[in-house]
Amino acid sequence: MNLQTKKINSANASVSGEILLEDLEKKLNKIATKISKTVKMDGFRKGKVPLNVVKSRYKENIEQDAQKEAVEEMLQLGLKELQIDAKDVIGDPIITEFDKKDTFISTTIKISLKPDFKLDNIDSYVPDVKLKQITNKQIEDRLNDIAKNKAPLIEAKKDKKLDKGDTANIDFKGFIDDKAFEGGEAKGFDLNIGSGQFIPGFEDALVGLKVGEEKDIDVSFPENYQAPNLAGKAAVFKVKLNKIQVKDQPKIDDELAKSLLPEEKEPSLVILKEKIREQLELESKTKLYNEELKEKLIENLNKGIDFDLPDLIVEQEMDLLFRNSLNILDPKELESLKSDPKKAQEKRNSFKEEAQKSVKITFIVDLLSKQENISVEDNEVLQTVYYESMMSGQNPKDMIEYYKKNNLFPALKMAMIEDKILVHLLDKKLGKNTKSEKPKEEKLLKKSKTEEK
């Protein structure tokens, strides 16, 4: 086989050799003999089909199987010579040369390996975490918002003009080209002004009306409106304001605390304010992490830690980034890439640096997850998909099936592990640990956000 091996670096290697045609022929005969013992063919008894007939009938498949067996044999011999354990090979090795000569096939196989590196002094890559102090005014403002949202609606005074934040009870009917359209009419409809529930311009046009007044509102449906028959079209809505409701004067006392802290044994306004402080601190920290520190940490890890990357994995990531970019290109640019292979290759190559960063961070996160003993269970991944589908108004079962069908769960799980590790490292720098967060605080946070909507 005249084997030649080369360890390019700690993450890449190659195996070259000559597959002799006479050896390949032996493999062909062996495979054909095995087939002839079981194959059924008209005119011959089972197990008695001549070898030449089998080789002729199944020539293409037999050749592929023989070549595959020969390449696999070369690969295993190469790994042994390189002293590489098969479990350290990442992805499928790639055949970069398969050139048939008179007596042999010149073959080269490229192999990617798990990078060998260490993560020492990881804290030095974590940016400083400094949280702003929560002020009493922030606490009072949040308390007022919560109380206001819980306050009941009452009918406004008769001379009041409709303003943002008020709830308008209206009758309306929509027309396109002077013709009423389906779904464009309602009576006694309650609309919170400023909620963005209606198409742009509709709610703003109602501001300033008094009870009993009528108005024609000119608006245009967005080009991407969900109903194709209405998208982009100009419409006129005839509207009558029946009633204006406003929030009653909110009451901020121990009774409010009792309604918000049902799990507390002795809820009080003092305890509620302390819970709000903790909630605001958590929000502040989450915002700082998501908008600034996580990306800084990733950049520090990428620039500060150096090791060899497996070329084949980087190439796969480049392919993925390139394919994803095609989905957001305008039709002209997409057509230009299709008609110009050189330009398409340049576009693909433009993702090399991003691909290298992505692959490197993936390996770093994988090692960190082992060092820090951080993992994400499968049920956590399912819960995330379930929650996200509910929030976006989609069917959770359909979404889960979509993730399964497209094999998206591994990538989502890896993303969740990465996020968990980043938060863990930042919390360590801050001197806290996310495991100490109280479930009650999270419940209060979700409850308050719901109420604010």
Automatic annotation (TrEMBL):
* Entry's EC annotation: 5.2.1.8
Domain description? Consists of 3 domains; the N-terminus binds the ribosome, the middle domain has PPIase activity, while the C-terminus has intrinsic chaperone activity on its own.
Family under the similarity heading? Belongs to the FKBP-type PPIase family. Tig subfamily.
Q: What class of enzyme is it?
A: isomerase
Q: Which biological processes are named by the entry's GO terms?
A: cell division; protein folding; protein transport
Q: Which Gene3D superfamilies match?
A: 3.10.50.40, Trigger factor ribosome-binding domain, Trigger factor, C-terminal domain
Q: Which GO terms describe its cellular component?
A: cytoplasm
What PROSITE patterns would the database entry show? FKBP_PPIASE
Instruction: Mention one GO molecular function.
Output: peptidyl-prolyl cis-trans isomerase activity
Spell out the protein name for this chain.
Trigger factor
Q: Where in the cell is it found?
A: Cytoplasm
Please tell me the species this chain comes from: Helicobacter cappadocius
Name all PPIase FKBP-type domain ranges: 165-247
**Where in this protein does the record put region Disordered?**
432-453
